[in-house]
Amino acid sequence: MLKKLLKYEIKATGRIFLPMYALLIVLALINKFFYSVNVDYLAIPQILTMTAFVAIIVGIFLMTLVVTIQRFNKNLLTDEGYLSFTLPVQAHSHINCKMITTLMWLILSGIVSFISIFIMTINRETIDSFKNFFSLMGSALAIAGIDGYIIFFEVIFLCIFGLLSEILSIYAAITIGNMSSKHKLLAGIGSYLGMGLIEQFFATILITSYNGKIGTDFQLFGNYSAINQYRQAQTILLLLIVFVLVFGTAYYILTNWMLNNKLNLE
Amino acid sequence: MPWKLKSDRPIYAQLIEHIQLFIVSGIYPAGSKLPSVRDLASEASVNPNTMQRALSQLESEGLLYSQRTSGRFVTEDVEKIMDTKNNLAKGLIREFIQNMNNLGYDIKQTVSLIENTAEEE
Amino acid sequence: MNNILECQNLVKFYPGCLALNSVNLTVPKGRIVGLLGPNGSGKSTLIKLANGLITPTSGKILINGMKPGIETKKIVSYLPERTYLNDWMSVNNMIEFFSDFYDNFNMEKAYDMLKRLGVNPNQRLKTMSKGTKEKVQLILVMSREAELYLLDEPIGGVDPAARDYILDTIIGNYNENSTIIISTHLISDVEKILDEFIFINQGNVILTSTVDDIRENENKSVDALFREVFKC
Predict the structure, then answer these.
(1) Hey, which bits of C16-166 come out as E strands?
(2) pTM
(3) Strand order in the sheet with C148-152
(4) Which residues share a beta bridge with A23?
(5) ipTM of the complex, rounded to two decimals
(6) Partner chains of A (3+ C-beta pairs under 8 Å)
C-alpha cells in the first residue's frame, strides 16, 4: 500500500519539481554559454540569467517547504482527506509516504542544484580543484581510519534524521493546528513555535547537564589527543542523533495518534 | 419511463395493480415471460425488494407462476385473466358509481347519463 | 453475519454537543435504506463513524461484525457530500487510482457509466463543473463492488435527468449481499427506491420502518410524515 501511495504522491509533487529542475539546468547551460562567449553586448542578459539562476535555486528550496506543508494539509486535512482516510490504508502509511517523498525531493534538489552549478562552472581549473578535493578527502579518511568513517556516517545520519525530525515537527504542528476550528493557520504556527521552544529547552538541559560537561568538552576539544578528539566528536554526534531521533519519534507518534483519534474533517 | 405511482399508497399495492393492468390489456400476454425482477424494478424506478413482494403476491393469487430456472411467466389460464380483468373493471365502476353518488346522481340517473353521453360521441 | 451495520449504545460526544445519544441500530444486508433527518441531527456523524473517520466516545459500531478499520474500508464505499477528488488528476487517473487501491473496483462499469452520463475520461477534474465532478464521484463510488454503500446526498446537486439516471443506477446496483444507505433531504424523489428508512434527530433514532408500512398504516408518504414529525 505504501508503494501505491508513494506512486501518486510523487506524481502529484513531480509536476512541480521536475519543471523547476529542467529550468535550472537550462539556465545553467545558458549561463555557461554566456561565460564562454563573454561579449560586451551580452552583459545585461548575462546578469539577468544569472539572477534568474540564483532565484530558481532559492525558489526550489522554498518550494520544497511550501509543498511539504501544502501536500500534507490539502491531501489529508481538507476535502481530499475524505478520500485519503477512507482508503484501506493506515494513517501511519500516509505519514510515511509524505515524509519519504519530501526527503526525496530535498535530496534531489540538492543534487540537481549541485549538478547545475557544476555545469555552469566546469572548466579545466575546476576539474582540477575537484580532483584535489577528492584526493584530500580520501587521504584524510585513510589517516582517520575507521573512526573517520564513523564520523562521516554519523554526520550523514544526523542530516537525514534531522531533516525527517524537522519535517515531522511541521506535520505535527499542522495536525494540531487543524484541530482548532477557526484559527487553523495561527494554531499551526503557534504549535510549531511551541514545539521548537520545547526542543530548545531540552537541548539546553542536555548541554548544561553533567555540570556543563559537554559545553566545556567543546572548549577543551583542541587540547585532546587525536583519538580522544575522534571519540569526543563521535559521542557528541551520537548524542545529537539520539536527540533528533527522540523528538522525531515523538512527533511521529503524536501526529499518528491525532490522525487516528482526533481527525476533524469539516 | 418510471411508472406513475402515488405517494400516499403502499408502493407494492400500486405495483400489483400496474402489472395486473399490463396482463389484462395484453401487454404481457398469457403464457409470456416476464422481465426479471431487477429489470422490472428498474423500469418502474422502485426498489427490487418491493417489486419482488408485488410479484410474489401475484404468484400466490395465481396470475403469475415461476419456473425455477427459467423465470416468471404469466399464467396460461385465460379465465383467470378474464376474472382479474372483470374485477379491475368492477373496481373502476364501483369507484365511478361512488363518485356519481357524491355528485348527487343515483344509479338510474347515472346509467341514462352514460347512455346519453355515449350517443353524443 | 446478516447485519451489515450494527450500532450498540453508540455515543459520540463533542465538546458542547452530543452528536449521537446511545444509538442502537441494525441494518441487514440486501437493503436500500434512507437515513433521514434535519441538519445537525447526527446523520453525518453516524456516517463518519461507519467510515472510520472518527471514533466513538462509547458504545460500538460494527460493519459486517468488524470494528471500522482497514478491513471495513475495503468493503465500504463512501460518497461524501463534498467533492473529495484530487483536482490535478484526470478522470482516467482517478479510475486508475481507485483501481489501484480497491480490489473490488470494476473498471468496465465505471467507463460504461461515464459514457452514459456523457463525461470525457480525459478531462482534468480541475476544469469540470461542480455537477460533472459530482457525477464522476458517484460513478467511482458505485463502480466498486462493495458490501455497504454510504451515499451522502447523492442527488443533491444534479439536474433532474441525471437524478433519474443516478436513482436507476442505485437500483441496478442492488444485490442481496450489499446494502445502500442514502442520507438525503430529497425524500420524495428517493422514497420509492427505499426498503426502509430511519428518522434521526438530535442524535436519537426516532423511528425506523418500511416505506410501505407507513403508507399502509398512515396513508401518507414518508415525505409527508417527515414534514409532520420534523415540523419547525
Answers:
(1) 17-28, 32-36, 58-63, 76-79, 148-152
(2) 0.86
(3) C76-79, C148-152, C179-183, C32-36, C196-201, C204-210
(4) none
(5) 0.90
(6) C
